[in-house]
Amino acid sequence: MSKRILYLSDYELRALQAKGKTLTEVQQFQISRNGETEFANYLSRAPKTPIHWLVDTTGEEYHATLVPHVLGLDRRNLVAQRKKRLFEGTPYTYGVIQGRETQEQRKNDRALFTALTNSDFLQPWLNLIIAHKVPLVGIYSLPLKSEHLLKYLPKAPYTLLVAQAPQINSHSLAGLRQSFFINQKLQYSRLISLNTLNPQEYAEYVLEQITLIQRHLERERMLPQTGLPEPLSVVILTDTPLLSGFDTLPNYDTTALNLHILDSREVAHKIGLNGKGKKGKGLGNRRIGLREMGSRKPERAHYATTADIRYFLYRKVRQAIYFTSVLLLSGATAASWVTLEKTAKLQQQSQKNASEIAKRQAKLEQLRKQEPKGLPLDIELLSSVVNVGRRLKARHLSPRPAWVKLSHVLNRHPNVFIERLEWGIGHVATEIFQSDLKSPLEKNDNDTEDSENPLGKIDPAKNFIEGMRLHGKIHPFKGYRKALQSFKQFVKDLRKQPKDFCKIKVLLAPSIPTKLQGKIGTTQKTDKAPFIIDILIKHRYAKKPS
Q1: Which residue has the higher pLDDT, 300 or 418?
Q2: pTM
Q3: Distances (CA, A) of 304 to 56, 126, 188
């Protein structure tokens, strides 16, 4: 998959295409009105393709320092506060923790803070990118990205990388970038003009600048004060025609430096980079860093704000929704396929069952046409047997529902105490209970009770009766009058549920004994107020299945 890369310097903007190990320059845009118009046309040709933006400018500032060792949210707050304090007035700042300091006693963290101090050169191009709604992955610093380049170069704890850069202004022929690294991490970088491409003069100028930056690093105490354990490793990446200038350098002593002079084409070949396009020659060794950017996965942007990359974020959300939709569609398709397969099997089984039913019906029709031979039972007897079986099955009735309904009434009468309960099933009360008791109240108010809750005529073929006989007393006993009131209220509550209890029959009720009426003096104290009640529930046999 190809990637679109923009390379912006102080002098021009270049558009490149990276595909695999091939880097192709597509177009150059001058920093002018015409260049902006050409860039707008370039964006309009592929507005949906994301852009990786690489900046290589003299207006980038670096500040390496030590910060307290903290973690998590404290670290993020510390980095944000330090960036705000160091670089005011620019939104394009970056801070990164590079590791622990092992020499000091406190072992603080080593941090690098960078910023684009002059962000005006970004704005015209950035406005066009936003206007065309092109997804911007991020804005990256070339010196920071060059850390990935060190894995292809000689390794050392202190490394100075010197590389030729494209033209940085209209008065220079090219540029010279010097970047200093400690343990493969960027500490400082400088971009200056290069006014000669004569091999001898070029070599002398490069070595002179190396001496100057070495002294600067020593003054800033970025190099050890007691001397390096080995000479400073200096890697010079240069074009092939300029290599001859380093063959003889009589005026410079390089014994204090571990000097590596490398052909940028050989390094590119070692990496496996192929370049296309005549215009791309001016990039020189910058192609190596650009290739690293094109081949790596998108990483955290150095300078882009959330507003700058919002269309790229929208694109990621759309892709996530699309991917989720594809997964849901795939799942639905798989589920539909399984359902169709099950449906086909059910259809086959239905056809098989239909065929079997047709065969059975044909055999039954033949049996109906034949005369019965030797059958001992006629159809009426068979019907009676089926009805008897149905009734027996219906009488397998659990007493639990009736007991639960009775308990609901008893909960409202805590002084009603049940001593014994008889339960059974039949067509009449005498069939249900062992003895048939008659109530002394049967002749007066019991007739009224029976008319209020009639069972009606019982058809033994359709209905049967569930009966409960309650033997109880009013406890605790607080006098016959109160016991009788409690009993009557209990019977009244039972009769309020005609849907549950079809008939309530009082066989024995608490009453004031005749022998106690009219007695004077000490009487025999009693605490008995017994009662007997029949509760009858009418049931219907289950219907004969068709």
Answers
A1: 418
A2: 0.59
A3: 15, 10, 21
